[in-house]
Amino acid sequence: MVLGRLAMFVALFASQLGNAAVVKRSELFDGGECGEEAHAALRLAFHDAIGFSTSGTGGGADGSILAFNSTELAYVIRFESRTTSIDDIIARQWPVFTKTNLTAGDFLHLAAAVGVANCPGSPQLPYSFGHSVTDILARMADAGFVAAEVVWLLASHSIGDANKIDPSIPGTPFDSCVNTLSHCSDTQFFLEVLLQGTAFPGNGGQSGEVLSPLAGEMRLQSDFAFSQDSRTACFWQEAVNAQSFIMGKFEAAMAKMQLLGQSGLTDCSDVIPVPATFTNNIQYPASFNQSNVQIACTTTPFPSLATVAGPAPTVSPVPQS
Ligand SMILES: *[C@@H]1O[C@H](CO)[C@@H](O)[C@H](O)[C@H]1NC(C)=O
Ligand SMILES: *[C@@H]1O[C@H](CO)[C@@H](O)[C@H](O)[C@H]1NC(C)=O
Ligand SMILES: *[C@@H]1O[C@H](CO)[C@@H](O)[C@H](O)[C@H]1NC(C)=O
């Protein structure tokens, strides 16, 4: 029963990430019992989270106990001498985890919450998805950036392309606004990350990549997570077709980043060429409309956009210099 629930949750969250998850019913929790495995999953979640220290070391509830099990277990050993069942549950969870395409943090804390639900009389534990977002926001907060600024900095992906994620398709862009030589610095990226993903470009799905909506386009798992997470979804949506707003915010966040830990620099901005402007409204790629948008911000209406005419495009790679 409960394993059915785990499989369902994993399928649900993984499908939010653009993947169909397959976790067999009998794979965890002694076949659905409130037994040693359910208890051990909870202990694992505890040790993962308590590895966090307010003095700045340790990542907290990030799944690192699972992902970096050999180094993190050293800490558990200092904390508590009986570690046998921690080793055992890591060994049991590892093969299931690697099949789910979830981040270690999302998987481990999901497994604990579902495992505890096997036990009559236990509370229904809350579960928050999006540990990669939590990790990135925490790291950026430590450097002085708030969630909105992290989203604005991701405007950089509108002019980015991936070379290493799938080495078989170097120069694969993250949005469709590319011409023969270059990207455009517009907000098409923020729109396209929200479109339902249907396929992987190149050689199948790679680590850090989720399904993208257009042939020849790559979507990063972390970009999609930011677009859907309640802490960042409205900042993401706010960027769609807001060219001058995003130009200003991106510039300010970049300026802040350049000055981190620096002092006494001389402002030489006048040596930087003035970029060409982009004033058009962005449009849905041909064949898409608002019914394809995975809207995650419900407090403001989604902007109304036209659709490019014709059949769905195939995005060309950016030539490598
Ligand atoms: C620990 O993680 C590695 C991958 O880094 C994995 O191969 C190994 O099986 C894990 N150990 C256990 C006990 O699960
Ligand atoms: C995980 O991703 C790989 C590559 O994208 C895919 O082949 C596999 O089916 C996915 N697994 C699940 C459980 O979604
Ligand atoms: C989107 O396009 C589909 C056909 O591709 C159409 O059925 C649907 O009404 C359109 N939805 C919107 C909101 O325009």
Verbal overview:
- By secondary structure, the chain is an all-alpha fold.
- The protein contains 13 helices and four strands.
- The strands form two sheets. Strands 1-2 form a two-stranded antiparallel ribbon. It has a two-stranded antiparallel sheet with strand order 3-4.
- Strand 3 and strand 4 form a beta hairpin.
- Helix 9 (147-153) crosses helix 13 (243-258).
- The longest helix is centred in the N-terminal third of the chain and has 17 residues, at 84-100.
- It is globular, with a radius of gyration of 22 Å.
- Bound molecules: 2-acetamido-2-deoxy-beta-D-glucopyranose (3 copies).
- Residues 289-291 line the site of one 2-acetamido-2-deoxy-beta-D-glucopyranose.
End-to-end gap: 55 Å
Q: Please list the strands of the largest sheet in the order they lie side by side.
A: 1-2
Count all strands and give the number. Answer: 4
Small molecules bound in the structure, each named once: 2-acetamido-2-deoxy-beta-D-glucopyranose
List the helices and strands in order: HHHHHHHHHEEHEEHHH
What amount of the residues lies in strands?
A: under 5%
**What's the number of helices?**
13
Low-confidence stretches: 1-26
Whole-number radius of gyration? 22 Å
What coarse outline follows from CA principal-axis ratios? globular
Helical/strand content category: mainly alpha
Task: Please describe the biggest sheet, giving its number of strands, its sense, and whether it closes into a barrel.
Answer: 2 strands, antiparallel
Mean pLDDT, rounded to whole units? 77
Indicate the percent of residues in helices.
40-55%
